[in-house]
Every structure is written in structure tokens, then in C-alpha cells.
């Protein structure tokens, strides 16, 4: 018997499932863990960023966006969330042949994406753009309100 022979066969990885995991649970790193396993550093980075970001968002909500530490804590969570939506778009739009060459070369199976992955891409683009624009609007509003308050206190 050869020591190199493994009894485990290579696992087929679905492009549709990967894009859906990135859309639904991407900020927790689910798509990275599905593709690369639990040793993936970027999957853990997603999870840590979300864990850091949740208290930041809660702190910002509780202080009406006045807590500076809340802004610093919310940024890693936002980066994780937006990276997950972007990953869903990138994975969903990758051609099946390239997907199979990278993730399913040893399985002998071929991907056949349908409309489901297209809808996942559309929803990822819609929700990602909505959240990005909302976040930018709230950030700029908070900044300009603080500038107005600073100008009022300076003029007194």
C-alpha cells in the first residue's frame, strides 16, 4: 500500500451555493469556510470583523452616531459585509469552466449554473449598493452636523 493514497474523494463545490453563502452568511465567512475549510485565514477575518463591528453599530445607535469608538469598531464589520457582497458577485459571475478548473478539477463533475446564481448576484448588488450608499450618507451627515456644532460653539 502506498502512503500517498487518500481514501477521501475530492469534494464538489457548487458555484451557486458559494454565491448564496457569500450573500447570506458572507460576513461570517461561510463561503470561505465552504471553499477552503476552517483553516482559511480570510474566513476567520470575516468572522472577527463582524464580531468587532456589531458592538460598534450598537454603540452608534445608542449614542445617535456620537461615539467615536463606535465608528472605529463599525468599520471592520462594514468591510466584512461589503467584501461578502462583492465575493457573491465575483463568484456568481465567474464562468463555469473557470470555476470548475479552480475548485472542481479533481472531481470530474461540471457546474451548471442557472438563474438562481443570477438572482443571487442581482440581490448582492442591490443590497450591497443600498447599504454602502446608506452608510456613506449617514457618515457624511454626521460629519457635517459635527462641523456645524463646532462652528456654532466657535462663534459664541
TrEMBL record:
Pfam assignment, any one: TM2
How this chain sits in the membrane, per its record, is: Multi-pass membrane protein
Name a single GO cellular component: membrane
As given in the record, the signal peptide range reads none
Q: Where in the cell is it found?
A: Membrane
Keywords for this protein: Membrane, Transmembrane, Transmembrane helix
Q: What InterPro entries would the database entry show?
A: TM2 (IPR007829)
Q: Which residues cross the membrane?
A: 42-62, 69-93, 113-138
All residue ranges annotated as the TM2 domain in the record = 13-59
Top-level taxonomic group? Bacteria
The entry's protein name is TM2 domain-containing protein
The organism of origin for this protein: Trinickia violacea
